[in-house]
Amino acid sequence: MALRRMDELLKDARRKRCAVGAFECWNSDNVHAIAIAAARADAPVIFQASPAEYETMGGADVLRRMVEGYVEKYHLTAALHLDHGSTLEHVQECLEAGFTSVMLDASALPFEENCELSRKTAELAHARGVSVEAELGHVGGTAEGGIIAESSLTIPSEAVRFVEQSGIDCLAVAIGTIHGDYRGEPRLRLDLLQEIAQSLPGIPLVLHGGSGTPHVQLMQAIRLGISKINICTEIHKTYLKAIDEARGHLTPSVPGKFYQPVVEAVSRHVERLICQFRGENAT
């Protein structure tokens, strides 16, 4: 089975009022775990990586071949997405490698600069039949203090203008999430999300910083129009915890034995999230 355009998966999810999980890839173990989870859940999935992450695996083309191998093995419906590219060179690299979706994150720049870079990204990607995600507003992170400023949130009227001028396919919105760990319990601005979704009925909406966001709020966001939820920190923690637990009862001189329990732990976590985003119960 071939990799799919990401926007196709998300438009289908929006029609069904569910969301597709997008899981960060940083090594072969967690890529395998994501594939196993999607196969068990019998659901679409998005593999995604930033430039720093795919470089640790040997490059964008190496990751694409790895993901395609698992898509064929498990008969998956899946997309491969560039997450938080920072230059047009990153975009071009991933397009040439065979990614089916790209994002150049210019969200920290002024509106017009973000719009122009996103427009250039869309031109490059659409020429190859690849979908484009961009972010308006700015989803910060733990490294930036974990503070959510009102000024960083997506303005609904700007969202419409941004999509029209840039020609992107999917819009990541800033409604109160962060990348990394929250200082306290987040309160998503569902009022903003509702207004954005009503103004852009044909555009899939993306939620970055899904890790640690309360389940009830995530489900409310999905019902209001979120079609893709990015997860990274949660599976990082599960991965590291599984390694620690394996080290406690496995012989360190046989590193290969760490693989199975770690992959199993991550795959079960990812499967549970995939099912939750579809409004189902994980086994």
Looking at this protein, list some descriptive labels.
single chain, 283 residues, 8-stranded parallel β-sheet, TIM Barrel, alpha/beta, 49% helix
Structure description:
By secondary structure, the chain is α/β, with parallel strands linked by helices. It has a domain at 6-83 and 144-155 and 170-277: Aldolase class I (TIM Barrel, Alpha-Beta Barrel). Helices cover 49% and strands 13% of the residues. It contains eleven helices and eight strands. The chain has an eight-stranded parallel β-sheet with strand order 3-2-1-8-7-6-5-4. The chain is globular and about 60 Å long.
Mean pLDDT: 91
Judging from the principal axes of the Cα atoms, what is the shape?
Answer: globular
CATH topology of the domain at 6-83 and 144-155 and 170-277: TIM Barrel
Largest sheet, spatial ordering of strands:
3-2-1-8-7-6-5-4
Q: What is the SS-derived class?
A: alpha/beta
Q: Mind summarizing the main beta sheet?
A: 8 strands, parallel
CATH class of the domain at 6-83 and 144-155 and 170-277: Alpha Beta
Number of helices: 11
- Total strand segments: 8
The level of helicity is 40-55%
Q: What is the CATH-assigned architecture of the domain at 6-83 and 144-155 and 170-277?
A: Alpha-Beta Barrel
Order of helices and strands: HEHEHHEHEHEHEHEHEHH
Taking pLDDT < 50 over at least 5 consecutive residues as the criterion, the unreliable ranges are 141-147
Rg on CA atoms, Å:
18 Å
Measured distance between first and last alpha carbons:
26 Å
The CATH fourth-level homologous superfamily of the domain at 6-83 and 144-155 and 170-277 = Aldolase class I
In what range is the share of β-strand residues?
Answer: 5-15%
